[in-house]
Amino acid sequence: MNPSRPTITLNGHLEKITYYNEENHYTIARFFVGESKNLVTIIGYLAGVNPGETLKITGAWEIHPKYGQQFKIDSFEVTLPATLDGIRKYLESGIIKGIGKKMAGRMVDHFKDKTLEIIEESPQKLLEVEGIGKAKAGRITGSWKEHHAIRNLMRFLQEMGVKVSYSAKILKKYGQDATDIIRHDPYRLVKDLPGAGFIIADTIARKSGLPRDDPKRILQNRPDSPY
Asked: Domain residues of the chain, as ranges?
């Protein structure tokens, strides 16, 4: 983040993704600010989101010589809906596979404002809804985890001070459990992400409070270590 530029936060919803790089998640998109009709261009590393989702993005305005004013993203958060109507529309959108319009209605009628919390934290309770068996509950849960895994990983890397551009490689290596894996043992990255692995692992370890003489760190003894 460049300290010389004013950093601000915008709240709104993602209207359209115009460019997306699957290798590093670099994105160019159109974004509605707040409830207004003010449609702006946002650029940066943005993954695990779909058009229609509500976001809180932090960054700064920049002027591109060809494309004009753009908002460059430093960090972002997905704001999940809290109202019954918002939750219903979110599930009806097709973002979570296995949930159609009728099923979304049944789930919200049954779980009310706890619907999204149930999907994420108590998926076994989905069986209480008419029309959801074990197989369908598994598909819904799997789709939810897949959709939110990259978002959780990017948020974790942001908190740790690591470039989010590494998230694609980390997710490809560890899958949906990537955040838990590197949180528990960041030094796994050393052998699994050649070149940058030690620097990333050490950054996460320091932020997490692990000591410099941690056995896992000492065992690395890599020649490219700056320590």
From this structure: 8-78, 84-132, 163-220
pLDDT score of 192 more than 80? yes
pLDDT at 191 over 80: yes
Chain length of the chain: 227
Domain 8-78 has CATH 2.40.50.140: yes
How far is Cα 167 from Cα 146, in angstroms, rounded to an integer? 14
The residues, ordered by sequence, that sit 6+ positions from 86 with a Cβ below 8 Å of its Cβ are none
- On the question of pLDDT at 1 being above 70, the answer is no
pLDDT of res. 64: 93
Virtual CA dihedral for 62, 27, 99, 132, nearest 10 degrees? -120
Residue of higher predicted confidence among 148 and 113: 113
* Helices within 112-166 (DSSP H only): 115-121, 134-160
pLDDT for the residue numbered 24: 84
Pick the closest to residue 161 from 186, 180, 194, 188 (CA basis). 186
Side chain identity at residue 105, one-letter code: G
- Long-range CB contacts for residues 143-146, cutoff 8 Å, separation at least 24: 143/96, 143/97, 143/98, 144/96, 144/119, 144/120, 145/176, 146/176
